[in-house]
Amino acid sequence: MRNLDGKIALVTGASSGIGAATAARLAEAGAKVGIAARRVRKLEDLKASIERKGGEALVIDMDVVDPDSVQAGVAQLVDSLGPIDILVNNAGLMPLSDIDRFKVDEWHRMVDVNVKGLLNTTAAVLPGMIERHSGHIFNMSSIAGRKVFKGLSVYCATKHAVTAFSDGLRMEVGQKHNIRVTCIQPGAVATELYDHITDPGYRQQMDELASQMTFLKGEDIGDTIVFAAQAPAHVDVAELFVLPTEQG
Ligand code: NDP
After folding, report:
1. Is residue 177 domain-resident?
2. Residue 96 CA to ligand 1 centre (angstroms)
3. What is the value of pTM for the model shown?
4. Residue 50 and residue 65: Cα distance in Å, rounded?
5. Distance, CA of 39 to CA of 36 (rounded, Å)
6. Is the CB of 46 inside a 6 Å radius of any atom of ligand 1?
7. Name one GO molecular function term (predicted).
8. Residue 94: CA atoms inside 13 Å, Cβ hemisphere, count?
């Protein structure tokens, strides 16, 4: 189905994993996609792949932690393709470690990207949606935004923040501004996310988890996003909790 024809989407963290797959799926469904991240070479490859399948994509060099970079990227997309209908707040990272290892830089990085980055892009895109009284915002939370796991304290704190913000945002902008908000909560997805784990114990734990079950693919999450985006305008799929079948 291609009922996203004519829609403009912005996907953050589109250079790999869930973001890249989601951008590709949105393009297949007819949307023109702004693909944003810091690794521009990877975005160029994704753009070429989307265009080979007849889609349209715009590469945006964006660091979600930097509000100026976010504002400039959003302006570039609006100027090039038009006002944004769909925002996928996906950029994030998960360097796991025990609190008593005091990897404080990694704690700050998770808060900066997973929470403040998501707020930066929301602040940059929402005014245009309010003005047009229409739009759809997807926020990438996690199973870690529903329950807490040992070793994931800070990551869980950031993803609980995303879940809470999504709920509050939906209450504030749904009725008043006709904007839909969907909070996505995936279980384990096979992506580069686990590469950022610097703690050897947790890295091994994640490798073991991967050997015990078939992880989701980024495309599985992209498909759920397209499903919610294609729902009739009066339907807000507020939450999607998507797990590998074998994940307890
Ligand atoms: P990846 O590591 O493959 O993707 C992370 C993306 O975030 C990359 O494209 C990276 O791009 C981008 N990113 C990181 N920092 C910044 C920044 N400062 N500015 C802009 N972009 C940034 O992992 P996933 O695809 O798995 O992760 C995507 C989201 O899904 C994350 O929010 C993650 O927490 C969430 N999630 C993942 C799960 C999993 O099991 N994989 C499960 C549940 C949720 P670049 O480095 O080029 O800037």
Report:
1. yes
2. 14
3. 0.98
4. 26
5. 9
6. no
7. oxidoreductase activity
8. 25
Instruction: Examine the residue annotation and report whether 202 is marked as an active-site residue of this protein.
Output: no
Structure tokens at 109: 């990085």
Atom of ligand 1 nearest to the CA of 15: 9
pLDDT score for 16: 98
In a domain? residue 34: yes
* CA gap 192, 168 in Å, rounded: 30
- How many domains does the chain divide into? 1
Q: Model confidence over 67-86: pLDDT tens digits? A: 999 999 999 999 999 999 99
Is 2 contained in some domain? no
Residues 100, 19: Cα–Cα separation, whole Å: 32
Q: Candidates 44, 46, 90: which one to mutate for ligand 1, based on the most atoms within 8 Å of Cβ? A: 90
CATH number at residue 68: 3.40.50.720
Domain hosting 120: range is 8-242
Query: Which tokens belong to 241?
Result: 């909790």
- Grouping H, G, I as helix, E, B as strand and the rest as coil, residue 224 is helix
Residues of the chain with pLDDT under 70: 1-2
Whether the ipTM is more than 0.85: the answer is yes
Is 90 close to ligand 1, i.e. is its CB under 6 Å away?
yes
Catalytic residue among 107, 138, 155, 165: 155
> Is residue 62 assigned to a domain?
yes
